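in:
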C-alpha cells in the first residue's frame, strides 16, 4: 500500500511539473522591449512554487551590446485566460 501511495504521489508531481506549456516567445518579446540594447546569452524558466503552472519565473543572462560583462534579470509571468501575461499586467488586472 505504501509503495502505491508513493508511486501515485510521484506520478502527480511529475504530471503537474511537466504540464506547463509556457510560451517562451512572450518572455523573449518583453525582454527585447525592456532591454533593446542587449543580447540574450541564456534563458531558463521554472514554475513559481505552489502555483500549479499558473505562474513562471524566467531567468535571463544577457550582454549589453556596448559591454562584455554578463548581466542577469528575472521576469515573472502568469497564465490568465489561456494567455501568459507579465507580472505588471497581472497586478493591473487584479486592481
Amino acid at each position: 500500500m505504501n509503495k502505491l501511495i508513493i508511486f501515485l504521489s510521484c506520478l502527480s508531481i511529475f504530471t503537474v511539473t511537466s504540464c506547463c506549456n509556457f510560451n517562451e516567445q512572450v518572455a523573449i518579446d518583453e525582454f527585447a522591449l525592456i532591454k533593446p540594447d542587449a543580447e540574450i546569452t541564456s534563458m531558463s524558466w521554472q514554475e513559481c512554487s505552489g502555483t500549479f503552472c499558473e505562474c513562471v519565473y524566467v531567468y535571463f543572462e544577457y550582454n549589453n551590446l556596448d559591454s562584455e560583462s554578463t548581466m542577469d534579470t528575472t521576469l515573472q509571468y502568469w497564465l490568465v485566460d489561456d494567455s501568459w501575461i507579465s507580472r505588471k499586467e497581472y497586478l493591473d488586472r487584479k486592481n
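note: Strands lie at 38-47, 55-64, 70-80, 83-86.
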